[in-house]
Design a protein that fits this description.
The chain has 492 residues and is an alpha/beta fold. Helix content is 37%, strand content 13%. The protein has two domains: 15-340 and 450-484, Alkaline Phosphatase, subunit A; 344-444, no CATH class. It has helices spanning 42-48, 54-57, 77-91, 96-100, 123-132, 153-159, 175-181, 190-199, 215-220, 230-235, 264-275, 290-296, 300-321, 348-357, 363-374, 391-399, 405-415, 429-441, 475-484; strands spanning 66-72, 107-112, 163-171, 204-208, 225-227, 242-245, 282-288, 327-332, 336-337, 341-342, 443-444, 450-451, 455-460, 470-472. The strands form three sheets. The protein has a ten-stranded mixed β-sheet with strand order 5-6-4-3-7-1-8-13-2-14, sandwiched between helices. Strands 9-12 form a two-stranded antiparallel sheet. A two-stranded antiparallel sheet has the order 10-11. Strand 5, helix 10 and strand 6 (242-245) form a beta-alpha-beta unit. Bound molecules: zinc ion (ZN). Zinc ion binds next to helix 12.
Length: 492
């Protein structure tokens, strides 16, 4: 079962509108020639001149050579809190992110996330706000309502001689990485986004999404090392561009990873080990993308473990930054999601946290088991849905929790499409299961959707002083441009 949100309607691949195949020169080749007619080289400059932006009027005290932009996708503040509480209880240490707040020179900000047409943004509009400094509509990728295509930050960085990288636990063609490299009328056009990633010469691309890179495309990427397993990634030649596609779709949740599936921390380490040799520096985006998916699914255990995996990647970055002062680090999220929180009282809270730390598998794993072992399908086909008595044991195997009979009954009704929550979006099987588990894990969710909450942003390094305590997401684009002192983007 695909637990991804379904608010994005499929649209038709624009083909040559967004792409020019003459530019298909591989990840390490010369600059692509794509989309010349649609690019607006003045767009980024115009955005940088907005008078209401604190970053537009300031200058960095020192120029940054590199930017590392870390995104825990769909992270409500409650998610950050839960990960910290679980790590302290289970591992007797703090997570890296809150520890940063006590460091000298680290800045904290609160960020607005609304898009051009919605108070509640989606990931593509939010990543585009960072990527090109403009507000666009939900579902679009650096593509304005009047069809302008502002230049994404990785292209501008490349034009300025910098190396570039995208690391994610989602498909590499998914909204957040796309927001730094692609121009598309819809985030759903992932075949087109894959072609743009290939054409636009990103030096290191690691994540899922292999299904969007057909054999013909792969064989065209001469000079690029393409890997699909963790060990291959570790052994890949260091002097060539690297494309790691470790799954057809998203990489597995951290709790479900096999030996061939690299963690976000491992991918981060490999990306940094390559990009650090770039003579003119680099821009690297690192995304913990499945934090968002766990929140959509109201899967508290996976939410915590995905956030912990993201925090491990922060640890890798901080170790790399040791004794360096040439890198702007931004750690944030694109929007809140489902607003989870530990919301019981007393000694039971400690037992809940202990259970959260023992989660064995994700809801995604669980629903795959329901499909393969019980014949469950979505929408449910009751003629195939058998052996319901196995549901409790499968839930216990995934979560470590033994649900009560009334909770099992509610979940089974939801599987059959017969459960009605008063807040309609919460009627799904996943949300029903999340609500049942809240009685045991103590973590409740308000919805399966993104929310309009302001979000946490932590930054350090040259240029971070340009980030005001309360900012709009588009301002981060200007901060990156100014910190790196990038020349204006040219049409490509
Ligand atoms: Zn989302």
């Amino acid at each position: 079962m695909d637990l991804e949100p379904r608010q994005h309607a499929p649209v038709i691949d624009p083909g040559p509108i967004a792409l020019n195949r003459r530019g298909f020169l591989g990840l390490g080749g010369a600059a692509g020639l794509a989309t010349a007619a649609l690019f607006s080289p003045g767009f980024a400059r115009a955005a940088a001149q907005r008078p209401d932006s604190p970053a537009a009027s300031g200058k960095p005290r020192k120029q940054a050579k590199n930017v590392i932009f870390m995104v825990s996708d769909g992270m409500s503040f409650g998610t950050l809190t839960l990960a910290e509480i679980v790590r302290r209880a289970r591992d007797a240490k703090s997570t890296h992110w809150p520890t940063l707040w006590s460091r000298e020179g680290v800045r904290r900000s609160t960020m607005r996330t609304a898009s051009a047409n919605s108070l509640v943004t989606d990931s593509s509009a939010a990543a585009s706000a960072w990527g090109s400094g403009v507000h666009i509509n939900n579902d679009a990728v650096n593509f304005t309502p009047d069809k302008q295509t502002p230049v994404p930050i990785l292209i501008q960085a490349k034009q300025n001689g910098k190396a570039t990288g995208l690391v994610t636990t989602t498909r590499v063609t998914h909204a957040t990485p796309a927001g730094f490299i692609a121009n598309c009328p819809s985030r759903n056009l992932e075949d087109a986004i894959a072609r743009q990633i290939a054409e636009r010469n990103v030096d290191v691309v690691l994540g899922g999404g292999g299904k969007h890179f057909p054999d013909a495309m792969r064989s065209s990427l001469t000079g690029t090392t393409i890997v699909s397993k963790s060990a291959e990634m570790a052994a890949a030649a260091k002097d060539k561009p690297l494309l790691g596609l470790f799954s057809k779709s998203h990489t597995p949740y951290d709790t479900d990873r096999g030996p061939d599936d690299p963690s976000l921390a491992e991918m981060t380490r490999v990306a940094l080990a390559r990009l650090e040799h770039a003579p003119n520096g680099f821009v690297l985006q690192i995304e913990g993308g499945r934090v968002d998916h766990a929140a959509h699914a109201n899967d508290a255990g996976s939410l915590v473990h995905e956030q912990l995996a993201f925090d491990d990647a922060i640890g890798v970055v901080l170790a790399w930054l040791e004794n360096r002062d040439d890198t702007l680090l931004i750690v944030t999220t694109d929007h809140a999601n489902a607003n989870p929180g530990l919301t019981l009282y007393g000694p039971e809270t400690y037992r809940c946290v202990e259970r959260l730390g023992r989660t064995k598998h994700s809801f995604e794993w669980l629903f795959e088991q329901l499909q393969t072992k019980l014949g469950y399908d979505d929408p449910v086909d009751t003629t195939k849905f058998k052996n319901e008595d196995r549901i409790p044991s499968l839930i216990e195997e995934a979560t470590g929790v033994t649900l009560r009979p009334d909770e099992i009954a509610a979940f089974t009704r939801a599987l059959r499409g017969q459960q009605a929550a008063l807040f309609t979006p919460m009627s799904s099987p996943a949300c029903t299961l999340g609500a049942c588990l809240a009685n045991h894990l103590g973590v409740a969710f308000i919805s399966p959707n993104h929310t309009a909450d302001y979000v946490e942003l932590t930054s350090m390094g040259p240029g971070s002083e340009l980030i005001a305590p309360f900012i709009d997401n588009i301002e981060l684009h200007e901060v990156m441009i100014k910190s790196l002192d990038l020349a204006p983007a040219k049409a490509i």
